[in-house]
Specification:
There is one protein chain. The chain contains five helices and no strands. The chain folds into two domains: 49 residues, no CATH class; 41 residues, no CATH class. The longest helix is centred in the C-terminal third of the chain and has 24 residues. By secondary structure, it is mostly helical.
Length: 116
């Protein structure tokens, strides 16, 4: 029960935080994101690191995200020859397509494939 109380206190503290957006050049945004990726941090944690603020430093889960609407699922279903309602199968095929894209891109630029 104590852990739940501790978690609630952390969530309450997080809820009091104010999100700040920085209007900086595209070059600066890219540099921060690349360095965050290199250090296995989120861009937010990288900014905190740059500013000398505490940050979690926990490794970022290795996943990519995208928001898909029902129209997107319908287009992908047609592309992958799947039923539009089978979101899980569409997600799996989309992941395979992304992996193949990266394999092709790496092979065409380096001549070797280092993709898992």
């Amino acid at each position: 029960m104590i852990k739940k109380v501790e978690r609630w206190e952390k969530e309450k503290t997080a809820a009091k935080a104010t999100q700040v957006a920085f209007s900086v050049s595209e070059d600066v945004q890219i540099a921060v994101r690349e360095e965050a990726l290199h250090h296995h941090l989120t861009p937010s944690d990288q900014i905190r690191r740059i500013l000398g603020l505490p940050y979690s430093g926990k490794p970022v889960r290795p996943r990519l995200t995208v928001s898909l609407h029902e129209d997107d699922f319908a287009l992908l279903a047609e592309q992958f020859d799947l039923p539009p309602s089978d979101h899980l199968a569409i997600k799996k095929k989309a992941a395979e397509a992304i992996i193949e894209y990266v394999k092709h891109k790496r092979t065409s630029t380096t001549g070797e494939d280092n993709t898992k």
